Amino acid sequence: xxxxxxxxxxxxxxxxxxxxxxxxxxxxxxxxxxxxxxxxxxxxxxxxxxxxxxxxxxxxxxxxxxxxxxxxxxxxxxxxxxxxxxxxxxxxxxxxxxxxxxxxxxxxxxxxxxxxxxxxxxxxxxxxxxxxxxxxxxxxxxxxxxxxxxxxxxxxxxxxxxxxxxxxxxxxxxxxxxxxxxxxxxxxxxxxxxxxxxxxxxxxxxxxxxxxxxxxxxxxxxxxxxxxxxxxxxxxxxxxxxxxxxxxxxxxxxxxxxxxxxxxxxxxxxxxxxxxxxxxxxxxxxxxxxxxxxxxxxxxxxxxxxxxxxxxxxxxxxxxxxxxxxxxxxxxxxxxxxxxxxxxxxxxxxxxxxxxxxxxxxxxxxxxxxxxxxxxxxxxxxxxxxxxxxxxxxx
Length: 395
Fold this sequence. Notes:
Largest sheet: 4 strands, antiparallel
Number of helices: 11
CATH superfamily of the largest domain: Butyryl-CoA Dehydrogenase, subunit A, domain 3
Distance between the termini: 57 Å
CATH topology of the largest domain: Butyryl-CoA Dehydrogenase, subunit A, domain 3
CATH class of the largest domain: Mainly Alpha
Oligomer: single chain
Shape: globular
Radius of gyration: 22 Å
Strand content: 5-15%
């Protein structure tokens, strides 16, 4: 159909025709991931959320076969995709559930990326191909019970003992922790902050799942306890001795999140749009009410803007690169906009909005975690404040 001006009739799910900004290869990837999410995530994720589980072992090989694990890395069995392509995959995965996107983000950006960027050639050859295939699952140990937004105050320490390092400490809120085969653990040493590839079957390594969550329930979240864990020198990441290491990994993960949040927002908007067209009150669909139309319009505008920001930042990363403040812009604003959309969509669905028969309350609860992890909203605000004023307000 065409509008009175001769232009194509706007698509209520893509009013600005943002698909036109994507290449044929990007659309193919996006649609492939979308179909997989529709086949493998959406039919079961409500149950996984209710039961507080995520079938990591079952899904990891499928994600690996699609080339989604470490997909933005070059070589070692990784797909070598563009940043934009990686972002689009994250968008579709989080349209299914934040837990699915978190699994892929942690595997690729937080576990594989530090090995790829800071590891030795031997480490890359040993771990990356098996992680890219989904044979090995990784996790990222940085956050501690008393050290979230201030990783510089971490207490986990690594001490040399002959040809080994001995690690002691506790890490908290670790995605994939109890299902991981290897953990990238960051610890203080006499020479600075160092990263270690720690096999999770090492004596003294313990992973305890965190229960009673009402957010990110379809995701494994754990506490890691390291008690005199002995790691050989060959498993120390040799190319980093400062917080620059873990912070660069977080920046990679935040990039995936800013795309993923747009996916969660889209899922909520589309659920509300469909529901409003079907739900009849006072003899007419509630979509015909002015107040409902305003809610739908506000949701649509925020989803389109968030998607546009994500694609723009993806193009920048693929061409000239992204400064941390630019990633903070996308993570901060896209997540808060997605959370607004989820809450508004919940109101459109009324009482049906609080059940996992519909996706909205699940996304709404998940986004409360996404709002906090990989840098809180407040931290990203101060990062942007420093970028535009040149003044540090963190202390």
